[in-house]
Amino acid sequence: MNEVQLEVAKAYPNDSGRGIARLDPDTLLHLKLSPGDIIEIEGAETTAAKVWRADRQDWNTDTVRVDGFTRQNADVGIGERVTIRKAEAEKADKLVLAPPEDASVQFGSDAAGMVKRQILKRPVVERDIVPVMSSTNHPFMRSPGQAIPLIAVETEPDGVCLITEDTEVELREEPISGFEKTGGGITYEDIGGLQNEIQRVREMVELPMKHPQIFSKLGIEPPQGVLLHGPPGTGKTLLAKAVANETSASFFSIAGPEIISKYYGESEQQLREIFEDAKEESPSIIFIDELDSIAPKREDVTGEVERRVVAQLLTMMDGLETRGQVIVIGATNRVDSVDPALRRPGRFDREIEIGVPDEVGRKEILQIHTRGMPLSDDVSLDHLADETHGFVGADIESLTKEAAMKALRRYLPEIDLDEEEVPPSLIDRMIVKRDDFSGALNE
Ligand code: ADP
């Protein structure tokens, strides 16, 4: 059979949540595919996607670009290999979607119709995660631009199915249990810029977790702790969550200031418990936000609590004999305020600086946060990237939300708040314009 093996790479920012795989023209030719055709992607599991042509810089790199949902559906990580072949897709008679175990979703009255319109002409395989965008013009709102992962609990027929106008789409609100893939979560596509930083974190954290034997063979110790430092709102938390998600590691999060404010003895107790749970559920990532507040320099220490928490943390980190299976990621805005004892070998001995994004990074972040928004043609993200010098990711996120709110205010006079439903024709017309962004920028 005609098939190729390719390395998995992350999706282009605009492709996320769309069920698209990018292949280069040579591969398309070799597999006798045209853009828009459906392929099977076989990793540890098999899923399907629609193919599009890759951008020129990716030609002849032997890669396939797919998003985090498709990677989970194929059960592969970035850098792993998958087998690609043309799929024999049949028209779906029926598709049943339900939220994963830990999610609760409420569907509005025409939700099934809207979901169907979103996933029209897309391939689905039973057990796949099917990301559905929620946006301001969607019946079930979460934060705009975020995809809601639903699970295809049933398809008729089996195998690769294509959603058409005639497919009966059924939505269940009852979460489905017993499905390993829970979807959701942050993936590398949700991070704009930071290409090199992501690469370094992957080498330090993902590699030892997935392939501990490489480290033991070379006789080197995988890192125990990685310190991410840089200004607030640049994506440190995001990055830690993405790594945990992409490695399927358990994620434990500790907010520095919170743990300090506990009663006598409780902070240490809590730290101990988290480390024990992390060991039990390894591979795990323990994320400690605002590490400087938990571990200020000794000479700065005023309170007894801080000193004890630092000591406890040192004990826990020194006691980890997990060889890369439990990794502690610390984040701080003030790297100089972190206790030097924590930065010694075997503790937080790797450091990565997460800086303010440049123009290219800002454009990617803008793309990410406007994914679920209907943008008017006069909105130029290039232009906005140029105008937002000095903005960090969190600022860009607020900007896009504020622009959407401005758009909403334009339509408010047309919305009758006493009516249960907003007319679909109005919802279809809603767009975010250049002026909304200019207004948001000038505030
Ligand atoms: P930090 O931990 O560095 O203070 P966060 O990761 O908590 O920052 O970022 C806060 C929010 O800002 C994120 O949830 C995200 O929406 C947005 N954000 C920050 N950096 C980025 C980025 N590089 N790409 C996309 N969104 C970002």
Automatic annotation (TrEMBL):
Residues covered by the CDC48 domain: 106-178
Keywords on record: ATP-binding, Nucleotide-binding, Repeat
GO terms, molecular function: ATP binding; ATP hydrolysis activity
All residue ranges annotated as the CDC48 N-terminal subdomain domain in the record: 5-89
Domain AAA+ ATPase: 222-358
Family of this protein: Belongs to the AAA ATPase family. CDC48 subfamily.
Protein name (Swiss-Prot/TrEMBL): Transitional endoplasmic reticulum ATPase
